[in-house]
Model the fold of this input.
Amino acid sequence: MPIHSKCKLVKKEQLKEDIFKFSVEAGEIAKGAKPGQFLEIRVTEEIEPLLRRPISIYNVEGNIVEFIFQIKGKGTEILSKRKEGEEVDILGPLGQGTFKFEGKKNIAIIGGGIGTFPLYELAKEAKKQAKINMYLGFRNKDFVVLEEEFKKVSDKLILTTDDGSYGEKGFAINFLKEDIEKEEIDGIYACGPLPMLKAVQALAKETKIPCQISLEERMGCGIGVCLGCAVKVNAGEETVYTHVCKAGPVFDSNVVEI
Done:
């Protein structure tokens, strides 16, 4: 069950001009958190903006929960101004669809842009039993973040930029394709822009490798009430709608339609 808690902001880091990492004391939330889950964060006590902001869990260490966000609008801009020592109103952990990696030996984790953030906790936990092959793509060198952190939880890390200004030139999925057989990949996990997810979904179907993808949707409530995050899934012989915040945000790639 999700927990509503006022959590102390113990550390605030500015990773880029518009990207922030918050570390909060959230012992009860940390106890139940699983890779792939997210938080719903109230950005202000004022009436506007009213809705909470969904932000993926980046890392859990003891009673500390870390999340990273990019300023996208008024809400996240307000949140970015919080100071260490202040409280953050959090509901979580949320999401019934989480990353499953039991029994895997050589997994591929692929992310793009800000979609890389929820993949750290996955890699950290999965590394306890499997080899981690990580493929991270960014627009250019100015958008690259957390390289050293991801190195620590990866056995192999390939970092790409669209223009070749840092790391390998091209799209991360092209390097994953080259490694499918060589690395004996037995599971693929992805989060990032929709075009990348569609390409990963097609690759998984072609190679018949089990694959899970994490969707990034507007989730105003996080508990399936506002109905703003509907997505199509295959249920046997018919297609039905479900909600990313409840059934996801992680889905089997052969079930969800994106």
Observations:
- The mean pLDDT is 93.
- The helical segments are 27-32, 74-80, 119-126, 147-152, 172-179, 194-207, 244-247.
- Residues 147 and 204 are 26 Å apart (CA to CA).
- The radius of gyration is 18 Å.
